[in-house]
Amino acid sequence: MKQDFLKIREFLDSNKVQYEIIEHEPVYTSEDAARVRNADLKIGAKSMVIRSEGKFYNFVLSAAKKIDWLKVKSILHTKSASLASPEEVLNAINCEIGSVPPFGNLYNIKLYCDPSLLENEEIEFNAGLHTISIRMKSKDWKNLVNPEIIDFTKKIKIISLHHP
What we know:
alpha/beta; three-stranded antiparallel β-sheet; 8 strands
């Protein structure tokens, strides 16, 4: 797990990308991460490992959004898709759930990014550990990992309040 953090740093450094390392108390949810980073939830890059028909995929979205499973299944052309189990995530990318970095490319896993994440100038994400996050420009991340950009999040329902 420490080696994954080092792998990410080496990848960023070798590509001459600017980034900031944030050390913090252990966090296990996007909400906790936003709190300890003192950042808006929407700039958090939630990195999910999805299993479908024996293969793994990395879906990255704004921490303020939720996955729409019908869209994910449509993207993968399958009837079956789910979150990978903690054991599968550990085996596939050597990270614990909640610390998965948005770098499927480093693990030879196809990477999808929801466009909502790229609306932010910067993104923050756990870097393979629950105690270390990285903040960097979203455009730099996008250029490095070259994700397939496609909408796979739930639409927010607007409730209209009518006053007589």
